[in-house]
Structure formats: C-alpha cells, structure tokens
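To: structure subgroup
Subject: Chain for Friday's discussion

All,

I'm putting the inputs and outputs inline so they're searchable in the archive.
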Amino acid sequence: MYKRILLKLSGESLMGEKKYGIDEQRLSDYAMQIAEMAKAGVQIGIVIGGGNIFRGLSGANKGFDRIKGDQMGMLATVINSLALSSALSSVGIKNRVLTAVRMEPIGEFFSRDKAVELLENGYVVIFSAGTGNPFFTTDTGASLRAIEIEADVMLKGTRVDGIYTADPEKDASATKFAEITFDEIYNKGLKVMDLTATTMCKENNLPIIVFDMDTVGNLRRVLNGEAIGTLVHN
C-alpha cells in the first residue's frame, strides 16, 4: 500500500445523476471511500475539479474573458473542496482546505511545508483553486501538488475504469491498457490529462493510476494493488 497519495477527482463526477452541481449521494460515497483509506493510515492529498459548476475554457468559448473564466473555474473548485471537506468532517475525518489564492477564512493559503505537516499529522488535505493561475487545468494543479508533497502516486479517479485506445463511451471497439508509458500516451495522442500535467509527471517520475472512482470500494482496491485501472509510468 502507498504511504502518501494525491487523489485527483473530477468535478463532473460529483454531479452523479444530476445535470449540474453536487449529487449528495456521490459526495457521501467519495467521503466514505476516502475515510476508509485515511483510517488505514494512508496520507491523502486531494485535488478536485470544478467542471460540475463552471469550466473556464468552455466559458471562454461563449464569450467570457479567458482569464476571468479560469478564475471562476478556480472558485468552482473551492466550492467542491468545501463540500468534500464538510462530508469528510461528518464521518469523523479531520481535514483542511488549502487554497492557491488567498481567501481566509474560507481556506488557508497553500504552503508546501504546511501541507506536509498536516499530512504527517493525519489530516486529509484538500488543495483548491488549482495553481492560482489562469491557463492551468486542475490536472496540472494536481500534478504540481503531488510533486510538491512527494506523493508516491497520483490516483486519477474518473468515470471510466482506465485508459482506452479510444473513448469507450463512444467507441464499443475501444480496448483498455493495463499499463502504458507517458511517451506512448503522447505518441498515440490519448486524452488522459493535458500535456502540461502529463509532462510534469513524466519529468518527475510520478506514476499515475487512472481508475473508476464512481464504483464504491475501488479506491481501496487500487491502494491494495489490485489491477483495476491503468498504470502510467516512464
């Protein structure tokens, strides 16, 4: 089992069966899975996207200023982070929301030393507001935070159970990779994460496991070494 992980969650997944916002049942399922692993002694950092509320890039396509749109997206991740924090607190898991943009008292301003200290003291640490900069995705924010806290692995929880040759939701003939290298992802043009995030993980030798977080129990299975997702490595 890994000692320290960075869990990247998709904002869209938080919608569950809804068309917008946060599905309370999905949020509760996530919190229970995270709580189980925290109680087992795994140090957990989390980055959650904001696509269930607002996505800066799609906003820019509809006439929003890109920088303002990305800032709105950052705030959407803070809303999701507070929701997850509240859900974790309700099941007895101590946690802290750190923000990449100053907004006390909503969250504490991110510092790497503070984050590591909290992790070592048994807190689940939720990193919000991306990197604090426009033009960077939450995948890149997750890669950055994972590298900063020296996580053993980045777990990317999605709606699908790994990386496929094509989108399995659109192409029935798509086949799944058990493992794949960063270079293969680049050469095959696979949409796993944006290129900046993938490159950061490659250059810092941070493995990624892409798996289906929406099936309850899968986080435990991944951390126990079951081959249920796709491992990305150098």
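Points worth raising on Friday:
The helical segments are 24-39, 56-61, 66-90, 112-120, 138-148, 182-188, 195-203, 218-223.
The chain has one domain: 4-233.

D.
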